[in-house]
Amino acid sequence: MGDLLQVNGLTKKFGGVTAVNDVSFQIGEGEIVAVIGPNGAGKTTLFNMISSYVQPTEGEVLFKGKKLTGRKIFDLAHLGISRTFQNLQIFSNMTVLENVMMGTSVNLKTNVFSAGFRLPSVKRDEEYAYKAAYDVLTMMGMNDLLHEQAGQLSYGLQKKLEFARAIVYKPELIMLDEPMAGLNDAETNTMAGYISDLKEKGHSFLFVEHKMATIMQLADRIVVLDFGTKIAEGTPDEIQKNEKVISAYLGEEVI
Amino acid sequence: MEKVESILYGSRWKGFLGFIALILLLPLVVSSQYVFTLLILIGIYCIITIGLSLLIGYAGQISIGHAAFVGIGAYVSGVLTVKYNVSPWIAMGIGMVVTFIIAYLIGMQVLKLKGHILALATIAINVIVYILLVGLSDYTGGAGGLVGIPNLSLMGLDLGNQLYFYFFVWSIVFIVILFSTNIIRSSIGRILRSIHDSEIGTETLGVNVTKYKVAIFALSAVFASLAGSLYAHYINFIAPPTFYISFSILLLVMVMVGGVHSIWGAIIGTAAIMFLNEAIRFVGHTYFNINGEVEIVVYGLIIILVMIFIPKGLIGILDFRKILPIESSMKKDVTVKENVASEKGV
Amino acid sequence: MDLFLQYLITGLTVGSIYALLAVGFVTIYNVTGVLNLAQGEFAMIGALSCVTLVNLGIPIFGAIPLAILITAIIGLAVERLAINPARKATPIVLVVITLGVSIFLKGMGLIIWGTSPKSLPPLVESKSIEFMGAVVNSQSLWILVVLIAHLVVLYWFFEKTFLGSALRASEKNPRAASLMGINTSTMSMIAFTIAAGLGAIAGVMIAPLTDATYEMGFFIGIKGFVAMIFGGMHSIPGAVAGGLLLGVIEAFSGGYISTYYSDALAFGFLLLVLFFRPQGLFTKATGERV
C-alpha cells in the first residue's frame, strides 16, 4: 500500500509551550486514520499544520511525495485534499445548493471576464457544478433542501452540508475535524455510513474525533496523542489494549 | 433541462424590461435640456457606481480614489484625440487598458493585506494622479484644463446630439449591468458572496480569494475609465479638479446610499444623490444666497443617517428585489421551488 | 550643507504636526478598530475655534486650552451620535460614517468660518533663531516641545494609569475586556474625545505657520494617516517616527526635486511602503498577511 500522506516529525511551539512534539505517521491510499487524545493533546494543532493553516516549527508533510508544508491554503484542494472544520465554516447566507456548488471550485475554469461575457465555458461550468452538487445532495438525502438558506438548517444538517461540500469534487484525501461532534446516534451512524461508502470508492480519510465507538468501528489505524507527543499507533484492537493509552485516558470516560 | 442559472437565481428579464422601458419613456416626458443633461450625467456616473458596488458589496473592499481612474480614462481620451488625432474609440480602448494595468498591479500588491488598506492606497493614487494631471501641463493643459475634445460619432450618427448621446450612454449602462449581473449570477458571484460568510471556508475549497478581489478591483477601475472617456467626449472639456478625491467620495456616497448589495442600488443611489445635489444647490442659491460647497453639510448628514438607520441603503427600504429578482437567491419564490420540484428527475 | 540642514529642520517641524495627528489616529484605531477619516477635521476645528477665541479678545494661552476643550467635546458628540449607534455595523459602514462626519464637519466649518484663510498669532512672538546657518522658526521649536510633551504624557497615561490600561485592553480583546467589567462603549467614547483633543492641539500648533481654513482638515488628516501606516498602524512611537519621516521626505523632495511634486512623491512612497513593508517601517512584527 503506497503512502498517500506522510507526516514527518511535525513540531509546533507557541512561545515556550510545545503543542505538538515530533509527530510522524502515514496514511495509505484508501485508508481511514483517526487521531485521538485527551483534550488539549494537540490534535487540532496537528490537523491545522497538515492542512497548512499553521506553519510547523519543525518537520514537514508530504502528499504523494510533494511537500505540503509552506503551501497556501487554497493549493491543497487543487492537490486533492479537502477538509471540514470543528466550528463549521459553511456559507450561511447562501443556499444549500450554492454551498455544495462552491465545493466544485477547483474544477471550474470561469474567471471574471469569461463570466462577464458569458462565454460557452461558463455555461458548461455551471451545469457541471449543479449536477455534481445535485448528485451529492441526492446521495445524502438532502435534495428537498436545495434552496434553503444554509444558516437556517439545524446543526446536524449543517454538518452534513459541510461534509457534502468537502466531498463533491472527489478529493483523494478528506480531513474531518470532529465530524460526529454534536450529532445524535442516528446522525452519527449515517455519517459513518457515508465515510465507509467513500472508502470503498478509494477515498482516504484523516479524522479527529471523540466518539470512541465510531472510531473503533471506522478507523483502520489510530494515532494517539498525549501532551503533543504520539504515544501509540495501531489498529483499533491494539489501541484498546495499549497500557499507555489507557493511563492517558484515566479519569476520562472512554472505551 | 431548465437553465441552471434560472434555477438558482430566477429570471432577470423582468427587471431589464422595466429598465429599458424607463429609459425609452423618459425622453417623452422630459423636455428640459437641463434635466436631460442631468440624466446623461447620471448614466455616466452609473457606469462607475455599478463597478464600485461590485467592489464594495461583493469583493468587500472600499475605494476612496475611483475618481483617479475616471480621470485617467478622460485624459487618455482627451489628450489622444486633441493632441494626436487618434480615433476616439481607439483612445477609449487605450484608456481602459492603461487603467486596467495600473489597477491590477496595485490591487495585486495591496489586496493581499487585510483591513481597509485599499482605501488608503486608492487615496494615494488619487492624489498622485491629480498632481500629475495638473503638473504634466504640456500634455494635459494643466490646471487650465483641456478644451476641444471632439464629440463621438457612431456609424455616421453625431452623438453630440443630446438625444442620441442619451440613448448611447444608457445603452452602455445596460451593457455594464448585463456584464455585471452575468458575473454575479455565476460561480464568481458565489465565490464573492462566500467570502463574506467565511473567507477561510472559501480558501479551503481551493479558491485564491485575492485573485478575485483583484479582478473585481481592476474591472471596477475599467468601468470608471470608460465613464471618464464618455464624460470627456460629452462635456468636450476636462480639468483636473473634476477628478479629485471629493469626486471619489461623492461616488462612494452614491453607492452606499443606494445600497451596496445590489447593482440596482448603485443606480438608485446615483440618481438620488444627483437630484438631491441639484435640489440643494437650487434651494441654497434661491433662498439662502449661499455660495461654495455648503451642500456638503447635507451630504455628510445623509451619509451618517443612512449608514446608521438603513445600512442596506435605499434599495433596502424599497426592496426592489420583489420586482427585480436580480440577486434574490436568498429567498426563493414559489415558482422557483416548483421548477426545482420538476427538476428532481435529473 | 546649510540647505540640507534647513530642509531637515523644516521637515521635522511639519513632520511633528503629522506625528501629532498620527498619534490621534492610532489612539482611536487601537481602542475602537475604526479608521477615523474625520481626524483631520478635529485639527481644523481646533485651529479655527482658537482663531475665533483670540479675536474675541481671549489671550492665546487661554484660547488654546478652550479650543482643545471645545474640540474634545465635539469629538465626544461625534462618537455618541454617529459612531456608537452603529457599533455593530461592518467596518466598511464605520469607515463610511467617519467619512460622512468628516464631510459634515467640513461643511459646518464653511458655514461658521467662511472660505477665507484665518491666521493665528504664534504662541510666543519672537524672532527666528539661527542655528548652524539654518533658520529655525520659534513656532517650530514649540511644536517639537509639544510633541515631546505629548509622548511623555501619553506614555504615562497608557502605561501607568488604570484608564489607560483599560483602553489598551479593550483594543487587544474587546470581549475579555468587557468580561473584566470594562465598558468598551465608554472606552470608545473616551478614545474619540482624547483623539479629538490631540487633533485640536495639532491644528492650533500648525495654524500660525500655514493659516487655517475650513478645507485644511481632510488633507492634513490623510497625512496623519500616512504617518500612521509608516509606523505600522498600532504603535504610538512608530506613528511619531512615521510623521517625522513623512515631513522630512516632503521637505527634501520639495527642496531638491520640486515643491509641486512633493505630495506626489510622499504618496508614491506610501504606495511603496504598502507594497513592500505593509507591517510598517519600524516594526519587526509580521504584517497581517492573509
UniProtKB/TrEMBL annotation, chain A:
Gene3D superfamilies per record: P-loop containing nucleotide triphosphate hydrolases (3.40.50.300)
Chain ranges of the ABC transporter domain: 5-252
GO molecular function, one term: ATP binding
Residues in coiled coil: none
Transmembrane domains' residue ranges: none
PROSITE patterns per record: ABC_TRANSPORTER_2
Family matches, as PANTHER family: CONSERVED COMPONENT OF ABC TRANSPORTER FOR NATURAL AMINO ACIDS-RELATED (PTHR45772)
Name this protein carries in UniProt: Leucine/isoleucine/valine transporter ATP-binding subunit
Species, as recorded: Lysinibacillus contaminans
Lineage of producing organism: Bacteria, Bacillati, Bacillota, Bacilli, Bacillales
TrEMBL record, chain C:
CDD domains referenced in this protein's UniProt entry, alphabetically: TM_PBP1_LivH_like
Membrane topology: Multi-pass membrane protein
Keyword Ribosomal protein appears in the UniProt entry: no
Signal peptide as annotated in the record: none
Keyword annotations: Amino-acid transport, Cell membrane, Membrane, Transmembrane, Transmembrane helix, Transport
Membrane spanning residue stretches: 7-32, 44-77, 89-113, 140-158, 179-206, 264-282
The family this protein is said to belong to: Belongs to the binding-protein-dependent transport system permease family. LivHM subfamily.
Name recorded for this polypeptide: ABC transporter permease
Natural source organism: Lysinibacillus contaminans
Species classification: Bacteria, Bacillati, Bacillota, Bacilli, Bacillales
